[in-house]
Automatic annotation (TrEMBL):
CDD domains: HTH_HspR. This is MerR family transcriptional regulator. SMART domains: HTH_MERR. GO terms for molecular function: DNA binding; DNA-binding transcription factor activity. Keywords: Coiled coil, DNA-binding. Gene3D superfamilies: 1.10.1660.10. Residues 81-108 form a coiled coil. Residues 15-84 form the HTH merR-type domain. The lineage of its organism: Bacteria, Bacillati, Actinomycetota, Actinomycetes, Pseudonocardiales.
């Protein structure tokens, strides 16, 4: 679902009241309250305690409905699926972060190695290359 977000907001900004979220997700408002109590969806809260749903929450509600109705997954299974998907997302972000750190460290190591090799070139002394043949004769034992 494409939605033009107001300036300074994104898909994580909670601004839909429960009635609008219910309409957008195709669920009843009481179902949304139940999903909130079960921890399937965690909407934002106003200072007065009212629920505010983000666009990401709406997408998640639709996915919960699809898993339940089309795939026959019970709510406990859906909760576990959501937890695992969140964990996978966090792990992917960590892998991306570590990959970036590794690339940065490798670039720094390559730069340091290049600096060391460059300093060797200034310190090298030319050596004449000659070939000579030496004949070795072992002494006889007495």
């Amino acid at each position: 679902m494409s939605f033009p977000f107001p300036p300074g907001t994104d898909e994580d900004t909670p601004f839909f009241v429960i009635s609008v979220a219910a309409q957008l997700s195709g669920l009843h408002a009481q179902t949304l309250r139940s999903y909130d109590r079960l921890g399937l969806v965690s909407p934002g809260r106003t200072p007065g305690g009212g629920r505010r749903y983000s666009m990401r929450d709406i997408v998640l509600l639709r996915e919960v409905q699809r898993l339940s109705q089309e795939d026959g997954v019970n709510l406990a299974g859906i909760k576990r699926i959501i937890e695992l998907e969140n964990e996978v997302g966090a792990l992917r972000a960590k892998v991306a972060e570590l990959t970036e750190q590794l690339a940065s460290a490798m670039a720094a190591a390559e730069h340091a190695a290049a600096s060391v090799h460059a300093s060797y070139r200034r310190e090298l002394v030319p050596v004449r290359h000659e070939t000579a043949l030496v004949v070795w004769k072992p002494q006889q034992k007495r």
